[in-house]
Amino acid sequence: MDELGDAVIGSPGIAFQVVLGAAPLPYVRRLLGERACELLELLQEGSVEGAIRKVAASAISPERLIGDPAERGELLDLLPEGKKVELAERLGWNGAPSPSAFLAALPWSLEERRAFLGFLGLVVDRAPEAPVSSRRPAEPVYGLFPHQRRAAAGVRRLLYSGERRTVLHLPTGVGKTRTGMSLICDHLRHNERTLVVWLARGRELLEQAALEFERAWASLGNREVTVTRMWGDAPTDLDELTDGIVVLGLEKAGAAAKSVPGFLDQLALRTALTVFDEAHQAIAPTYRRVVEALTLRSDSSLLGLTATPGRTWADISEDEKLADFFARQKVMLEIDGYDNPVTALIEQGYLARPDFRTVAADSGMKLSARDKEALAASFDIPDELIAQLADNVQWNLQVVRTVLDLSEQHRRILLFAASVEHSRLLVAILNMFGVDAEQVTGESSTRHRDRVINRFKGPGTRPMVLSNYGVLTTGFDAPAASAAVIARPTRSLVLYSQMVGRVIRGPKAGGTSTCDVVTVVDPALPGFGDVAEAFTNWEDVWKAR
Questions:
Q1: Is residue 448 within 8 Å of residue 394, measured between CB atoms?
Q2: pLDDT tens across 304-339, in order?
Q3: I need a surface site. Which of 113, 116, 296, 531 has the fewest CB within 10 A?
Q4: ∠ CA(510), CA(414), CA(365), 5° rounding?
């Protein structure tokens, strides 16, 4: 009997890694990609075949193989005859035609693909997620640091007179949400039977806001109010909703405005304060229409919260549109004796002192004239150019070595990858070297994302790397994270500041005294590599008239 047959005798199904372990090496190399194989050959001394098969078992997506008819056919051909029979029987085969012909003729519905995944020893998460209650009561220990109280006082002066709109500009990790919730509690105490609408994008930011309000109101509240979670599949029912806070997803608001006649109008009639988290997004056309609909009342106030009060790094016209939308009224953190408050916050321990450095900034990637034109015309680096870098062997070699070095000094490391596939490959290679690495992306299930993030935030002492693509730039709070590897290039100072902000929380705020930020961004660009300079990048726009 061959090696594959020996490995699976007497056990139901067959493990995916066993199939790949016995598959022809050229097949495995093709699935993994020659760039990844070349990277492993540079990292691994001696025979690389075992490393290729081990990394492939983690880096290759079985779901993708099973979902593609041609790839699925090749995978089925690799099964021993006895296992083909077993799989066919699981899927309803009655003895004719041959198991191979039966499997080839199947329509491969979602349930059949799930059965194949289970046959390969892969857990299929089919349990329904526990529904989140859209409403819960908040019952009446919530202080602010001196700099937060000063900022809140400045906001109050602008929020209830004149233009009745302003932006609160605080660095990431300094308590924008907490300060905002204190202001909301003040508003609700002084305006009984009224609603506050909190607008944000993304489940993490929305749930973080709802939980933070409950903590704030338990200390600062004077009555029972309703906390309404309105995102995802939650209903948009406004019946008997007259007092409290509505945490409303921007996508939900836009969809409801189209499908529920009068939804925003009814909500606006009951709302005198709207808060827009990550306010630099407020002038995106769909979001702007939502905000304008909610602030039609003459006594309506609008508060924006952001660490980056601009849309771009250097396009003043775009940044001026944002400033105009908020009537060019912005309250920036001020600390006596300091020209730049970020410097004070670092010295006083509210923010970690960051050490910025670059590795492999020269990827060796050659840009065509068309690539250069696309780069010049874009606010950020186009996706196709990022993909070229993500496929660059020398660059990935440096990224892996950098993370391995950092894992000897840091307990929690955040890795920002250039794509979902890039994140998967890096995590698979790090795991091969014994590093505890996990990933979350927009494709991750809620259950998987919550499990991985909770473990990353947990008290474990073993170093852990959490890789992500497009998920953890906002709404993610992990004070123990003390190093970030930005393995994707960007020209967006907003995005860059958000990524750096994930690891900059200081000891007075539950974080660390120092942090490492390793990046591919050229720190010679204004604001890139200096959190204090980045914080004041947009001041000229807001002061201009």
A1: no
A2: 998 887 766 556 777 788 888 999 898 988 888 887
A3: 296
A4: 145
Question: Would you give the DSSP letter of residue 435?
Answer: -
- From CA 311, how far away is CA 494, in angstroms rounded? 7
- Determine if the peptide bond prior to 62 is cis (ω within 30°): no
pLDDT digits (tens, 9 = 90+) for 57-105: 889 889 999 999 999 999 999 999 999 999 999 998 888 788 898 899 8
Answer yes or no: are the C-beta atoms of 345 and 174 closer than 8 Å.
Answer: yes
Decide if 59 contacts 17 (C-beta within 8 A).
no
Task: Pinpoint the alpha helices (H) of 120-238.
Answer: 146-159, 176-190, 203-220
DSSP assignments along 450-488, one per residue: HHHHHHHHS---S-EEEEEESSTTSS---TT--EEEE-S
Instruction: Dump pLDDT digits (tens) for 18-34.
Output: 999 999 999 999 999 98
Question: Which of 38-52, 63-77, 165-179, 526-540 is predicted most confidently?
Answer: 63-77
Beta-bridged to residue 302, according to DSSP, are 165, 274
DSSP code, position 130: P
Cβ neighbors of 89 (< 8 A, separation 6 or more) are none
CA distance 335 to 339: 8
Are 512 and 480 in contact, with CB atoms under 8 Å apart? yes
The string of DSSP letters for 352-410 reads: -EEEEEESS----PPPPHHHHHHHHH-SS--HHHHHHHHT-HHHHHHHHHHHHHHTTT-
Burial group, residue 432, by CB count within 10 angstroms (0-12, 13-18, 19+): buried
pLDDT band at 263 (very low <50, low <70, confident <90, very high): very high
Considering Cα of 204, then 207, then 213, then 219, what sign does the dihedral take? negative
Report the alpha-carbon distance of residue 454 to residue 123 in Å, rounded. Answer: 20
- Residue 42 and residue 62 in contact, taking contact as beta carbons nearer than 8 Å: no
* Range 275-297 average pLDDT: 90
Q: Which tokens in the block code for residue 394? A: 């020398």
CA 11, 14, 20, 22 dihedral sign is positive
**Across 33-37, 126-130, 239-243, 278-282, least confident range:** 126-130
- Which segments of 105-155 are extended strands (E)? 135-138
